[in-house]
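FORM 7B: Structural annotation worksheet

SECTION A. Query
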Amino acid sequence: MSTRRKTKSAKEVLNSLTAGRDAHEDQAQMQHEVGVLDSQPADLQPAQAVTQQPPDEDGKAPLPPDEPKEAAEDEDAWEDDEEDVGEDEPEPEEAEQTFSDQDKTDLPVLEAQVKHHGLEQARAIREIRQRKLWMLHRNDDGSRRYKSYDEYIDEHWGHTRQWATQQTQQLAVVEKLLELRSRHPDLPDHLSANAVSGLWQLDAAGGYQGSTQEEQEENGLVAVIVEAQEEGVNISRDNLRAICERRAGYYRAKKGSNPPAAPTYAAYKQDCLLAKQLGNGGSYGIVTDAQKLPGNFADNLIAVCTEQRRLPRPDDLLAVVTGQALEEIIPRLNTLAQEVADTEAKVNLLKTRKAEIRGMLQEGGLTKLREETKALQTELEEKGVITKRGGKKKDEADDGPKVEEAEEEAAGEEELNEVQENLDTALESLEAAFDAEWPESEDDGMIQAILLSAQGCEEKLAEIINKAKELLADAEKPQQKPEKPRWTLKPLDPSDPDSF
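SECTION B. Predicted structure
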């Protein structure tokens, strides 16, 4: 009987890997899934014995995981990647079908193999799905226990449909690798499920070599794995994904309107290693602005980046320069990037310090510091360590060199009087008010209140200025010398003793 869904062949799996799976970057956190393939395919190593107990009477014993700590993470990672594996919506309840005695015999055997790991497990899952053997499970009243394959995977094995699809997808890719090994003997004979999830857009990764879509994808698969082997990196999901992105990016751009400057993929690969120093950020339009300027492009690029305090996008840069020219530009951009980072850090520090000052003003922090300073000054004045304003240190002659040394040190610091201290505090408050978040222009009431407060400050400041000017004028007036007393000589009276 015909079914709504069929298990994907190796060709269909490769097509799904080419369908733009980069739209789901949340899969980047997926770790090695429960039940992934062993380092050797099952048909190349002795079959493992069933070490777990068979399912209980209800047939709901969970599948024992390889690595319990990672199992839950992988289940969650695959939960949201339905489109990545090319699946449809969850199946509705399927119609009954007739099973043979052989089907009934095969089901427990296949379910025992599901408890194994490697290709044997994946093949068993795929066969149960293809033959719909999961429908053989019955309740006590004879009704079917599971309405759909998804429900069977969930309730019988404790896994998601994405987990099951991951295993069958991996199996299809491994079978394709075994097929390709006849022409490419250096290819590995297996890939882990985690590694398979890193493959995408294989037709572009292979440079669109081949007369058919399938040939292009096969060539892409071979090219990606061979490059990983040549680089000596582990054939893991992240490494395969990086190679796929680099290869597909180059060959797609070659067919577009803004191709890379590198003449070959090998040169582009070296350029990417250089541009990697710039990170994955950057701003659009930087390279275009530099191209519009006359003269040397490298100098223009640095000038634009310095003026705008931004760096170019690596892809934009690779479309203009390559090789030696790129090697000369990257160090200059790195230096500029460090300067920009240092400046940003100072800007942030300045904002922090201003915020701290505003906080101290609001909490009376400066008032506390002023009071503490006055207390220290009074204590030192009483001890004769520093001179009181307008006075002398007591016991100055007896203190000897210590007093003189303290006096010189104190004289080197300009002491602030109370008026100046208050004015400095007021100035800091005004600066904090100016830097604070102002109300919107539509809020006339608040702005009017600010204006009135500012005018009050202005009037009080004018009074202080006038008083200071008056004191300075008085200080500049010449002081009048006191008149000397005039003495009058009296004639001496011999009869008056006081006259002598």
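SECTION C. Observations
Residues 10-180 form one domain. The chain is about 55% helix and 0% strand.

SECTION D. Sign-off
Analyst initials: ____
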